[in-house]
Structures are given as structure tokens and as C-alpha cells.
Design a protein that fits this description.
Elements: H1 8-30, E1 41-47, H2 66-73, E2 76-78, E3 81-82, H3 88-97, H4 125-131, E4 135-141, E5 169-173, E6 185-186, E7 189-190, E8 200-202, E9 234-235, E10 238-239, E11 243-245, H5 257-271, E12 277-282, H6 303-325, E13 332-338, E14 381-384, E15 393-395, E16 399-400, H7 404-411, H8 428-431, E17 441-446, E18 448-453, E19 456-459, E20 467-468, E21 473-474, E22 482-485, H9 501-516
Parallel strand pairs: 1-12, 1-13, 2-15, 3-16, 4-5, 4-12
Antiparallel strand pairs: 2-14, 5-6, 6-7, 8-11, 9-10, 13-14, 17-18, 18-19, 19-22, 20-21
Helix pairs in contact: 1-5, 5-6
Length: 522
Amino acid sequence: MNYFKKSRMKKIVFNILLLSLVATHISAQSKQSNPTSVKPNIVIIYADDLGYGDLSCYGMKRIQTPNIDGIAKEGLLFSNAHSTSATCTPSRFGLLTGRYPWRQNGTGIAPGDASLIIPMDKGTMASTLQTAGYKTAVIGKWHLGLGTKEGIDWNTAIKPGPKELGFDYSFIMPATLDRVPCVYVENQMVVNLDPNDPITVSYQNKVGNDPTGKENPEMLRYKPDPTQGHNQTIVDSISRIGWMSGGHSAYWKDEDIAATITDKAIQFMGRNAAQPFFVYFATGDIHVPRYPESKFRGKSGMGLRGDAILQLDYTVGRIVHALDSMHLTNNTMIIVSSDNGPVVNDGYFDRSVEELGEHKPAGNLRGGKYSIFEAGSRVPFIVKWPGKIKAGEKTDALFSQVDLFATLNALTGQNLQAADAPDSYNLLNALLGKDKKGRAYVIEQSGGLAITKGDWKYIVPNNMSSYNKETNIETGNDSKPQLYNLRNDLGERNNLANKYPAIVKQLASLLEKSKGDIRTRK
């Protein structure tokens, strides 16, 4: 039966039966093995555009996020953790490669028809965990390119992609939710594709006769912001970036995305419960276009963005409940974080701006997505591993998502190859709450670069725009050097560069050395 036409009840029954069988198997196996000798399952829940102030465990007042808060209450909450970048594609690159994305050309925000960005001649987080005996999966938003530079044929096996990077299983949205093609790709093949209605995608010119937001605005669920260009092919009553024809039977429905990918994650965990597994679960809830399930729409009082935060929290709850039902909780490390900071209007008039009220998605930080200020890349980061991480703790340790590669390899007893993950450090003690300091310094990216060491943050001067009018976000760009003492001025309001030129020089020198120093392992 067509996957997308199955009733919700059949999905629920299937998952209940699967969880029951797995629980029985795990219970029997646990009597025969020493649980301390089993490598932990690893689940990374990677939110999209979730801000530092968007969770109640980080101070959100307007709505509550009880499921994510529950992970914090049972685990460790970081106050000073960072994505590598202030936008999605480079952050995902840094996470999976252990390499700062600014070291490689072509790691900006990828179009939907981009070729594979991650090199296949070096290890990835997934491939090294695969070597350690893990079954690996990527489920949800990909946005790291697929195929070769010669182009992608969406109607045949799409490769290279996640499989060639170490993922045993993949169920992905190829790009991001506001870019075509708006289809799922499962293990290299577009799901539910009708061979008589082949897919064509273009980011250069219109293809086919499908309606567009520009030509057919009367067909839209809500209007795109005319200054941001989300007015091309219409899919599910929402106009996207890029043109697409064909593939109509394979189109996703936006309100079903969260449930669909969560079902896939739970099913993967169930199939592989008898061995260690790694799930990179990349949700798209908060990224535009926002259209969560009907049970969340209108419930937050904060527009569709707030409703999407409620849906994200519910999704996290489903993952946690599944692990509990399979008796896998005690041997599973869960990490919840975000790819970059928040943005409210990012292309569509969905009333998220009008209904934001007094809520501050970035909390007490300055900037947001696309910004070199702290709100661009200082993100929520919570980790839970019962019995290994003390419950209800908070840490100020400096941590970067680029460090997860080396850290998880250390956790699983792997030795990285010489050229792998050059910017990733083993911070296992920080991840477990035993080291309160973390890494020595961190480099942040959003167009330009910044470096933070100790209390001090230096932003490299540049001539790019200081303000993004379309998103109403300060970018942090300035033609003059910027220096902030984050201990006393987390909001980055008092530029101390003229007062402390020696510190500026020291940090600038360290950044330049880091840019030219590609670390290799012996």
C-alpha cells in the first residue's frame, strides 16, 4: 500500500507491535550480557533554527517544552555550546566532518540541486561509528548536496550521498523545506515516484508548467515575503525556492513531515535494538515554511513558529518514549541541539512576527541566524546518558559541535585517521560533565569569522552589511575590529577593541594561526 496513504492507526499499530517485539528481545538478551560492556546507542536530535531562548529550560516563558526540559532534568545542559556557523549547511558540514566549513569552498547554503559537499576520501562521524560496529542512520533534513557535479537524475538511484559517507540507512529531505525538490529520498531512491511523471529540478530557469507563487498567488496557503524570493514552484500550497516539475505522487505534505520522519527513526531503532546504533535525526520543524500538524497549529499563541516549537518538543517526547519502551534508555546517549540561531521572518508572512509578543528567541544574546554575534551560533545543547552523566547539572564548559566527531570516537574506543576531523577535539570529559572548562577557544562563522577564548571574543573586521533588513537581524559585521568581554557583556554591546589593543592583537594572531594550521593526527 502507498506509504503516504496508510492511516495513522495502522502506523500506530505497527509501531506498538515493533516496540513490543523489541522489548521482549532486549529483555532476554540483557540476561545474557554485561550491560557495562555494551557501547551506548547515540541519538543526535538536530533542530533547525532553534534559538538560545526558545526552550523553557533555557528561560522561555511564553510556552513550555516539557519533553526537552525532561532531558535537561535528567542530563547536562550547556550554556556555552556552539554550532560552527550561523547557517544550516556549513553547521551540518562541521558536525559530520569535524572540520570547520570555512576551510572548504562551496560550503555555503546549498541549493536543492547541489552536488555532494562532503569529501568521500576522509572519514565522517557516521563512517567511524560504522567501523566501531554501529548501525548508522540519517533521518530528516540533509542539505549537504547529493550526486556529482555533472548533475542529479532524481529518477534513478541518487549517489553519492549518505551511504557513501557511512550511513547504513537514510530517509531524507534532500535540501531544506523551502527548497525544491520537496520529496523524500530513502536509501538513494525518491519515495513514491511515478516513473511516468519524472522529476526535473532547476535553480536557473523555470521547468514544466507547475504553478508558481509569483504567477499564481491565489493558490498559496500564506504569502511569501516578496523581498526574499520564495515565489517559485508551489508544493502543498506553499511556494518554494527553485523550480520543479513532475514527481507529484512523491510530494511531501508539510504537516506530515515531523510524524513521518519520527516514525522512520523509531522503526530504525527498533530494527537495530540488539546492537549499538547511531541516529542523526535532523528535524525541520522551526525552519520555514512552517506548517505543523493541526493539533499544534494555533496552540502556542505565538504564530506558526511557536506552534512548530511545540511540535519539536512533542517529537522529542516520541523519541524518548520509544527508547523507554524498548528498554534502551539506560544505554543511550541523547544529544539535543540546533544548527544555528533563530530567525522569525525568513521568507513567509506566517504571523510569527505579529504574534511573537515579548518572547526573545535569542534570549539575552545579540543577533540571530546569519549573525556573527553570539545568537548566531551559541545554541541549546543538552546531553543525557543515565548513570554516566549526572542528572540536572549545568555547565559553562566551552564546547563546539565540531568536537562531537572526536569525542564520540573516543567514547567508542576508536582512533581517528591522520587526516580526519582536523578541528575536532576529544572533549568527552566535558560532554560527561567532568570537565568544566572545555576547549581552549572556538571559531565562529557567518560570512566573516570570530574567535572566542576565555572571556574574550574578537570579531574580524569586514565591509559586509551590518544589518539584514529582510530578517530584521544584526549581522555583527563592522569595518572596525570588535572585542567583547562575554563574562560582563554577553549581549555584546560594549566594544572594547580600542581599550585593549593587545588582546585584539593576541586573538587576531591566534585566529590567523588556526586558519593556516591544519592539524593531523599521529
